[in-house]
């Protein structure tokens, strides 16, 4: 007698990519809200080695950004980090990372977490239609963000691709890495914008002090 075994349900895993220069509470709250709303088993933070959409040439080293991210996520048992993009040569393309993660973990259903601002530029990403076949996207928005702007900007995507982009509202997304770097350069406080240990790491390593930041 043949017994048909049921296929195990796939694990929902969140990937949060970004420069994280520096990582802050906006990133952490968005990741936790996405984890909760979509019942993810964990969220993996993946600092980019060479972000293809960043024109700045003064980004902190990948190792520094990875260390800050490790520090920031250490208190959450559902959060972890990966150096997959730092170890990989060349530009850090999301589709390469997602495909590598799925190949290594075929039982994963991947949700890529990012900000709504990044979603509006997704048409410029490498093989965006292929990427949306590989994973879902969770776009974290600020309160009052007009979701119609996403649909209008991304109208060239197929209906199937658009259906794989989900949105969540996150109040603390008003915090930005750009503003934190500027505040450090100007000698203004950054406390309560990011974890205390990340703040300490920034000052101990003299990050963001030069005028080029």
Automatic annotation (TrEMBL):
Keywords: ATP-binding, NAD, Nucleotide-binding, Nucleotidyltransferase, Pyridine nucleotide biosynthesis, Transferase. Belongs to the NadD family. Catalyzes the reversible adenylation of nicotinate mononucleotide (NaMN) to nicotinic acid adenine dinucleotide (NaAD). The keyword Acyltransferase does not apply. GO terms for molecular function: ATP binding; nicotinate-nucleotide adenylyltransferase activity. Coiled coil: none annotated. Its EC number is 2.7.7.18. It catalyses: nicotinate beta-D-ribonucleotide + ATP + H(+) = deamido-NAD(+) + diphosphate. This is Probable nicotinate-nucleotide adenylyltransferase.
